[in-house]
UniProtKB/TrEMBL annotation:
<dbReference type="InterPro" id="IPR035901">
    <property type="entry name" value="GIY-YIG_endonuc_sf"/>
</dbReference>
<dbReference type="Pfam" id="PF01541">
    <property type="entry name" value="GIY-YIG"/>
</dbReference>
<keyword id="KW-0255">Endonuclease</keyword>
<keyword id="KW-0540">Nuclease</keyword>
<comment type="similarity">
    <text>Belongs to the UPF0213 family.</text>
</comment>
<dbReference type="InterPro" id="IPR000305">
    <property type="entry name" value="GIY-YIG_endonuc"/>
</dbReference>
<dbReference type="InterPro" id="IPR050190">
    <property type="entry name" value="UPF0213_domain"/>
</dbReference>
<keyword id="KW-0378">Hydrolase</keyword>
<protein>
    <submittedName>
        <fullName>Putative endonuclease</fullName>
    </submittedName>
</protein>
<dbReference type="GO" id="GO:0004519">
    <property type="term" value="F:endonuclease activity"/>
</dbReference>
<feature type="domain" description="GIY-YIG">
    <location>
        <begin position="21"/>
        <end position="96"/>
    </location>
</feature>
């Protein structure tokens, strides 16, 4: 594979991730009650990676972990923006946001 071929395959995967509308935001709680917020296209796979010690360094050795919330948010750009906004919230505001989101989901499912 030439440098050009390798570069174009990387670009294709980047473009696919931007077009993919199956991105989720998720929140994991550690055994000490700390929350970690992330984004992924596969919540189950990503949570399993965190449990096995792969992924975010600040979750390593802090298990057991609990997946407390996840929701599909659209494409990668939308997910990244929401992740940034949620990470800026205080813990109290983040808890309120999760509760509000869960209530909205329940209302739409009724």
């Amino acid at each position: 594979m030439t440098k050009t071929e390798h570069k174009s395959s990387i670009q294709t995967s980047k473009n696919e991730s931007l077009v993919n509308n199956d991105w989720h935001i998720y929140i994991i709680e550690t055994r000490l009650g700390h929350w970690y917020t992330g984004i992924t296209t596969d919540v189950t796979r990503r949570f399993n990676e965190h449990e096995k010690g792969f992924g975010a360094k600040n979750l390593r050795g802090k298990g057991p972990l609990s997946l407390i919330f996840h929701i599909k948010v659209g494409n990668r750009s939308q997910a990244s923006i929401l992740e940034y906004q949620v990470k800026k919230l205080s813990k109290i505001k983040k808890r309120a946001w999760v509760l509000e989101m869960k209530n909205n989901i329940e209302m739409h499912q009724s």
